[in-house]
Amino acid sequence: MTTCDRRIFAIVLLAGTALAACGCGHPLPPPPAVATFPEVTAAKPERTTLTLSTTQPGQIEAFEQTPLFAKVAGFVEELLVDIGDTVKKDDVLVRISVPELHDELHEREALVAQAEAEVKQAESAITVTRAAAATAESRIKEAEAGIPRANADMERWKSEHARIKELASKGAVTEKLEDETLNAFRSAEAATYEATAKVQSATTGFREAQANIAQAEAAKGAAEARSKVAMAAQDRAKSMLRYTEIKAPYDGMVTRRTVDTGHYVHPASGPSNKPLVVVAQTDVVRIFVDVPELEAARVDPGDPALVHVQAVGSKDIDATVTRTSWTLMESNHSLRAEIDIPNPEARLRPGMYATVTIRLEERPAAIVIPVTAVIRDGATTSCCIVNDGKVERRPVTLGLRSGPLVEVVSGLDENTTIVIKQPELLRDGQRVRIAAIP
């Protein structure tokens, strides 16, 4: 019974009591019973674009930030920058005075020159020994050419001696002539031996020349090796000398300086050492956002984002998620997401805070209902629909949830009337009255 029905019933009751008090002879009959049903708030599902997003605090950092340390020990000769200065890649920021490195470089250069001279000397020795080998080879050929001539001369005198000897035995010639031909034969035979010896001597000289060539080539190889060692030592000296100039690794800005001219600096040896200067790249900045575990799986590179930086008072910046850590951090079980934003005017400064809204998912033309209209019973979900004044519990399949709205994948359409407040108090088949349909 509604409040209005109760008031009507009270008025009728009072009127009947008054008439009875006035002496009316017959009492009034009781009022007829009024049928009452629970009143429910109902509405119809809507079709709209449902967007799921997360809003988290973020911090702006430089795209790159590099602390620059000394590699060699020495005194600060020149300090060419200060904090707030803009620098270009390879600009010299600090010069360190190390005179002994210059002396070492000069020594290495002299050793390189000496080694190169030894290489040239070895090359000349190879040329000389090859010429000697060519000469020895010519002598071999010359000596070999004399052997046939000597053999022919020996054979001729041998034959002549045999003929003269036979004539001498017959008394046709004198013994003196025989002795002369014998001496000539022996001389020709000796010449043959001499020609053979010359060939052997020339061959020995050629082999010695070849050995000298091999020795000269080995000497050249050793000289070249010494030259390479000297050049490597020279390159190292040059490298060490280059460390006396601290250069900017990229275009950026000097954000920190810890030394002055004349300070003694030494190579970094641990985390306690301070950098000489710190350079930051700020034409592009990174915004670090930690997304909670429940939303982490929905964050991907390329997701649209909206960045608001209260410190600069500018309008929101449209951006996208550039990269994520993919794994969750053990400290707080959140996903680290990074957003790169161009910063040509240098308005965004490292260390500023930002509020970042990341669009995780979007469902265009989705059928949505209030979350209050959903009845959960374990793993099943349902809604109470009103059909001809009766309640019917209908199973539904839910999808994306965003704030007070949730997507209905199946089970309802836009023409279905559903109870949107306290549907769990109603039973299937119960008659109700609809208070309002927005």
Give an overview in words.
The chain folds into five domains: 3-36, no CATH class; 41-49 and 365-436, conserved putative lor/sdh protein from methanococcus maripaludis s2 fold; 70-96 and 244-275, RNA polymerase II/Efflux pump adaptor protein, barrel-sandwich hybrid domain (OB fold (Dihydrolipoamide Acetyltransferase, E2P)); 101-239, Helix Hairpins (Orthogonal Bundle); 277-362, Efflux pump adaptor protein, beta barrel domain (Elongation Factor Tu (Ef-tu), domain 3), CATH 2.40.30.170. Helices cover 37% and strands 33% of the residues. The chain has helices at 3-21, 99-169, 175-242, 293-296; strands at residues 39-43, 46-68, 74-79, 86-87, 92-97, 245-247, 252-257, 264-265, 277-292, 304-308, 317-320, 323-328, 334-342, 353-370, 375-377, 380-387, 390-395, 397-402, 405-410, 418-419, 433-436. Strands 2, 4, 7, 9, 10, 11, 12, 13, 14, 18 and 19 form an eleven-stranded antiparallel beta sheet that branches. Helix 2 (99-169) runs antiparallel to helix 3 (175-242). The chain is elongated, with a radius of gyration of 56 Å. It starts with a helix and ends with a strand. The model is unreliable at 1-26 (pLDDT under 50).
